[in-house]
Amino acid sequence: MQSATANIGLRWMTTADEFLKAAETLAHGDTEGHRRRAESTAYYAAFHCVIEAGVLLIFNEPEAQRRARTWFEHSAMKTVAAAFSNAPQRPSDGSNDDVMARFYERLTAWRQQVKKYDLQNPPSADVQKLAGIFVALQRRRHAADYFAPVGEPQSVPRTTALQKVKDARRFCKLVSECESQSDGDFVQLVSEMMRASVKSPRQ
Amino acid sequence: MSVAEIDSATTAVRAALVGIAPDLPESVHACVFNLVHDEDLETDVALVVMILAYDDWDDATELACEQASDLAWSALSSLGIIADVLCRTQVEHDAVRDGEHWLALDDNC
């Protein structure tokens, strides 16, 4: 088990580390309030991970990095992450004609969906995965902090809270791997998040 | 979305989730789901409750939940639907389910 004090050991993730520890402690709390705050804090850990890693890859100058950290806007980031997450993955070699036809149909629809982004081909499976985790974490954060949308649960059981903390930790590890490899798809994801944030009105 | 589109998408999500059931870890049971349309994202999102049988939240439990999430994510991703998986115990689910709206995946839910 990851202890509440376990550090994910990433040089640039001080805030994310602290938030992950806080989220884990809250997830073990006795009240619904603790667990909702755990989900919210887990998302904010992920938020800090993606920004910290992204600005280091995009900007060289510390002053530019410092400024860029303040540009990101949650809703815009979620929209971009969903577009990346929704990309179809190419079927394995030897797939039959029906499977390939469905893939190309989805690829065409996806390209239409993401035409406002500088994105021609589906991102890597890892970047797609982390984008999907980000979307799910932010959706849960919103339900935990405010009101659950119609058809979605408001209550946060302990198991779900612990799961979301784990998801945030996993997200940060994937981000760290992308950062250490200067993953081009990841750079593109963060760049698009930043671009969409600057374009959208701050909420 | 029209009613026909919703019905079609719901049927596809149900089939995808039933399809992954045999591959889920032994301690995990795909129980209920709900399909919602996220207006911000202009995308359908499937909330899926996975029931976990566990005594202590440990590495094995985390892994089982993660594997179940990944399977659901892969199956629904191929439909262009984002998966939002929620792991719960049966006791936790029973405590809140009356106030929630779900579609059951099998007779045990």
Query: What is the CATH C-level name of chain B?
Result: Alpha Beta
- Strand-pairing-aware structural class of chain B: alpha+beta
Fill in the CATH topology of chain B. Alpha-Beta Plaits
Overall 3D geometry of chain A?
A: globular
Task: State the order of secondary-structure elements of chain B, H for helix, E for strand.
Answer: HEEHEHE
CATH superfamily of chain B: Cation efflux protein, cytoplasmic domain
Mean pLDDT of chain A: 89
Cα separation of the termini of chain A: 37 Å
Distance between the termini of chain B: 27 Å
Strand content of chain B: 25-35%
- Helical segment tally of chain A? 8
Q: Biggest interface in this structure?
A: A-B, 36 and 37 residues
Number of strands of chain B: 4
> What's the tally of helices of chain B?
3
Lateral strand order in the biggest sheet of chain B: 3-2-1-4
| Structural class by sheet pairing and helices of chain A | mainly alpha
Low-confidence stretches of chain A: 1-7
Query: How many structural domains can be distinguished in the coordinates of chain B?
Result: 1
Description:
The complex is a heterodimer of chains A (203) and B (109). Chain A has 203 residues and is mostly helical. Chain A has a domain at 14-72 and 136-182. Chain A is built from eight helices and no strands. Chain A is globular and about 55 Å long. Chain B is α+β, with helices and mostly antiparallel strands. Chain B has a single domain (3-104), classed as Cation efflux protein, cytoplasmic domain (Alpha-Beta Plaits). Chain B has a four-stranded mixed sheet with strand order 3-2-1-4. In chain B, β1 and β2 form a beta hairpin. Chain B starts with a helix and ends in a 5-residue tail after the last strand. Chain A binds chain B through residues 1-2, 75, 78-79, 82, 85-86, 88-89, 106, 109-110, 113, 128-129, 132, 135-136, 139-140, 149-153, 155, 157-160, 162-163, 166-167, 170, and chain B through 34, 36, 38, 40-43, 45, 47, 52, 56-59, 62, 65-66, 69, 73, 77-78, 80, 82-89, 92-93, 95-96, 99-101.
